Amino acid sequence: MSEDDVATRKMQFLFALRSKGVTDQRVLEAMEKIDRGAFIKGLFAERAYEDMPLPIACGQTISQPSVVGLMTQALNVRPRDKVLEVGTGSGYQAAILSLLARRVYTVDRHKRLVMEARDIFAAMDLSNITAISSDGSFGLPDQAPFDRIIVTAAAEDPPPPLLAQLKVGGIMVLPVGQSDHVQSLIRVTRTEDGFEYDELRPVRFVPLIEGLGRDG
Ligand code: SAH
C-alpha cells in the first residue's frame, strides 16, 4: 500500500466512525491518533482501516472500530479517571483509552496477548497503561475502585466483582447475553443507592471465559 493509499483509507475510516454515530470529538481524535494497523499482524493487516472485527492471536478478535468508538463514547472517560478494561485482546481499545484517561489497567486471560500488547504500548510511548494477565471476571482488587470499567467480552450478566469495584458515580460499559446469541451492549451507572442500567444496542463479542488461558 502506498502512503497515499494509507492516508485515504484513514480518512475513510474516520468518516465511517462518524456515520455510525461516533461524534464525540475527543474520542474521534484519539482514534485518529492510534493506528489500528499497528495492532493487526499478518494476513489481515491490510484490512485494518475497514470497519470490521478481525482475527488476532489465541482465537480472539480485535473489535469493530465503530463499536470501539461507541463503547468509548458511552464510557464518557474524563482526564483524571482510572479505568479498567477486561479483555486486552490486541490492545487497541486500551491504547485509545490511554489518551483519554489518567491511568488504564487492562487484563486478559491470555498471557501471549498481554505480552504482545505491552510491546505495542511501549513502541507507541503509552506509559499510562498497565497490562496484566489475569481472569478479569474478578476485576483487579488491588487497584480498585475504578471510575470507569469496560468489558470487551460478553458475560451472561455483569460480573458481581466488577460491580463492586466501580466507584459511586462510576460507569461500566459491557456486552451481556449468551455467547452464541446476539448480545446487548449495556451501560451501568453506580449511584448512591444502587445501579442504573441502560441498554445501548445489539452487539456480538467473544465470550468472557473463567480462568487463565492455556498459555498462562
Ligand atoms: N479489547 C480488545 C478486543 C478483545 S477480544 C481489542 O481492542 O483488541 C476479547 C478478549 O477478552 C480476548 O482477548 C479474551 O482472551 C479476553 N477474555 C475473555 N475472558 C476473559 C477473562 N475472564 N478475563 C480476562 N480476559 C478475558
TrEMBL record:
Enzyme type, top EC level: transferase
Subcellular location: Cytoplasm
GO biological process: methylation
Signal peptide: none
Keywords: Cytoplasm, Methyltransferase, S-adenosyl-L-methionine, Transferase
GO molecular function: protein-L-isoaspartate (D-aspartate) O-methyltransferase activity
Matches recorded under Pfam families: PCMT
Catalytic activity entry: [protein]-L-isoaspartate + S-adenosyl-L-methionine = [protein]-L-isoaspartate alpha-methyl ester + S-adenosyl-L-homocysteine
Coiled-coil segments on the chain, per record: none
EC number from the UniProt entry: 2.1.1.77
InterPro entries reported for this sequence: PCMT, SAM-dependent_MTases_sf
Active site (record annotation): 63
Protein's UniProt keywords contain Signal: no
Family statement: Belongs to the methyltransferase superfamily. L-isoaspartyl/D-aspartyl protein methyltransferase family.
Function: Catalyzes the methyl esterification of L-isoaspartyl residues in peptides and proteins that result from spontaneous decomposition of normal L-aspartyl and L-asparaginyl residues. It plays a role in the repair and/or degradation of damaged proteins.
Protein name: Protein-L-isoaspartate O-methyltransferase
Originating organism: Thalassovita aquimarina
Gene that encodes the chain: pcm
